[in-house]
Every structure is written in C-alpha cells, then in structure tokens.
Fold these 4 entries.
Entry 1:
Amino acid sequence: MLERVRFHFPRIAKKKGLDLHRLLRALELICWGLEVFPEAFYKDYLEDAEQIIGHRDKKDIHPLALTLKLRFPIWTNDLDFKIPEVTERVQVYTTQDLINVLELN
C-alpha cells in the first residue's frame, strides 16, 4: 500500500508544484512507526463498515473497519469516504489537506 502511495508522489508533486524530496520526507515522517494490523484485529467493525460504505465500493470496507477500530483519521482521496455516513464517524484527510497541514505548499 505504501508503495502505491509513493508511486503517485512524482505526479502529485509536479501537479501541485511541490518539491518531490520534501513530499517524500513528509511521507517518511507520517509512516514512521507504521504498524500493519491483521484482519482479526478489526473484524468486529467489518459489518459496520460494510453497511456504511460497502454499497459504494467493497474494497473500502477493510480500511474503514480499521479506521473505526482505531478511532484515527484516514488519509484518502477516494470520494467514497467523503459521504456523510463516513465523515460523521471518522475524520477524513485528502492529500491536499495533509499538504496544507504540513505546510508543503
């Protein structure tokens, strides 16, 4: 997943007029101490996540279930996460939101 994010960074940096090295450094800081969780850790939230977002995109169920379990914000540009059913339960940050917070522009 992290490689997928890193793959898009050159395009994002060019499109937004950002320094690629600063953007990659910000990603390193964000991911420092990153932990991978097995499905068993958040399985109690899968049904809830499926009801909230499953009708839009089945691939979003697991990330939302983990987010609900951890009660952490989620970083995604996926518009499925911008629906009220999601944003009422968790804080959703887009890449632009994070760029603004990290003052990369």
Entry 2:
Amino acid sequence: MKRRICLGLKLIKLLGQPPQTRHIRNHNLEQIIEHGRMHWQKLTQYGRRNYSELAIQRYKRILGNRLHSRELSRQKQEAMIGSSVLNKMTSLGMPISYRYA
C-alpha cells in the first residue's frame, strides 16, 4: 500500500509538470517517505536555502524592495553598499536562536 504525502493543505499533483522536474520531485518524495522529512532535509542541506531566503528578506525589509538607481553600474554599487550595511549590522549582533520542540 502506497502512502500519500500531504504537504500543507494540498495533495501533491505531479501530472502537470515537465518530465525532468517530475522525476526529481518523485525522487525527493520517495526519500521523504523512506527516511522522514528531517533526515531528508539533512541529506539535501535544505537549511541552506532557508538562510539565503532569510538574507534576501532581511535586505528587502531594511533597505526596501527595489533599487533606486537607474544605471546598472550604480545599481551594482547600491547593492554592494546595502550588502555591506547588512554585514555590519550582522557582525554587531544576531539573535541566538535554536530549535524548540
């Protein structure tokens, strides 16, 4: 008997996706069923994606959703300055967080 995985409120539908994406997704689902979600996240280093999403969220929240310059060279400078500002704020202190469950 095959188990169905329900992620969130919707049952995963694999029919409308391209074959290559379908194969990768099926493989991931098989690993989750076989080993469990937390073990799959450790195997695939899923947490790294979360760190990058957090960094982008922090950048947008503090510095805004868009760049103010029109020229590409100035946009690059603006992004570098914004990144250095965030790095400085991070070096001054980040909250210590840990998993509680």
Entry 3:
Amino acid sequence: METNNKLIVNNKTMENILEEIKQERFEQNAKWGEQNHNLVEWIAILSEEVGEASKEAVDFHFKNPYKNAHGERQEVLENDVVQQLRLKDYRMELIQVCAVAVQMIESLERNELSNKQ
C-alpha cells in the first residue's frame, strides 16, 4: 500500500504551512536576532503567543466586535466579514506559536543540549 506524504488541509499542503512557519521564523530573526533565553523565559514567550491565539478563538466564538491594529472597534463590518477576519488572525497567531516553538528548540539545541564542555 502506497502512502501519500502530502496532507491537504483546506487546499494547503502541510509543506506550504511549514513553509509559512519557516518564513515567520526568518521574520522573527530579522526583527529580534538570535534569541537564547532560559527555559522559563521561553515558556513565558510561548504562553504569550498562545494567549494571543486564545483571544482570537474566544472573540470568534463569542462574535466580539473586531478591532483594528490600533484597538479601535470596527462596527461597520458585517458579522460574517468579522468572523472571516478573526479566523485569518487566529491562523496567523497559530503560525507565530509554531515559529516560537521552533525557535525554542533551536535555542535548546544551541545551548542546553550542545556538547559544550
């Protein structure tokens, strides 16, 4: 039996999603440089990112008003438009969560798990 290693999720292959995560990692490096935090700091950073994804999920579920990047309510938008924006924002937050998790593993391997004497 032949297996197909290309998983398709809403017309996106896993490879495409992983490429987005990789691109987000590059953007993080461009913005912050190489990060070498301790384990507790990394968990705090990851938790903050997960919190942002959680907020988008809660706002989607309860159909809260959409706010722009400046925190201003966007009352004129139709509810279905708002919900689609929320899903896109939620997805982007999940990409950021994954990119931070990758960065955590990179840091762990560079530091705590390296063969330094």
Entry 4:
Amino acid sequence: MEGLKTVKRHFPEFLVNSPETFYFVPVTPGEVESEISLLSSNKSPGVYSWLVKILKAAKCFISQPLMKIMSTSIIEGTLPEKLRLQSWTR
C-alpha cells in the first residue's frame, strides 16, 4: 500500500510500556467458572437450556482447558480454527 512502511518485526515488539499500550491479565480458571455460573439456565427453552445446565455441571472440569484456550488466544492474537464461526473466502 502506498505510504506505508514495510517492517520485518512481529507486533509484540511494537508494544512498549507507555500510556498508548494495554496489557491483558491472563484468564484464571476461577474467572471462567464464575462466568459459567452467571449463564442463565432458564432463558432459552430446548437444546440451549440443556447446554447451559451441562456447562454448569462440568465447569470445574472444563475451566482449566477453557482458560488455556482463552489466554492463548489473547496472547497470540489468534483463535483455534474449530472455534471460528465465520469462514472467509476471496
């Protein structure tokens, strides 16, 4: 593109400790469990209400893997392929 410089550095190298940058604190399993607990089991009837009930029942088992997925996504700026809802084509 015209007027833009090409650099051979990765984006984290541009993040310095200044007021214009931000930092994400890694997600904890406790935070994941708290968010799952906040999901409403009664809002949508049918299949999705069962999904929320299953998530709530399994939260202590799934919080660690979900925490790793979320923290890795934030740190790397990516999302696992299987979790993407939209596929982009040219």
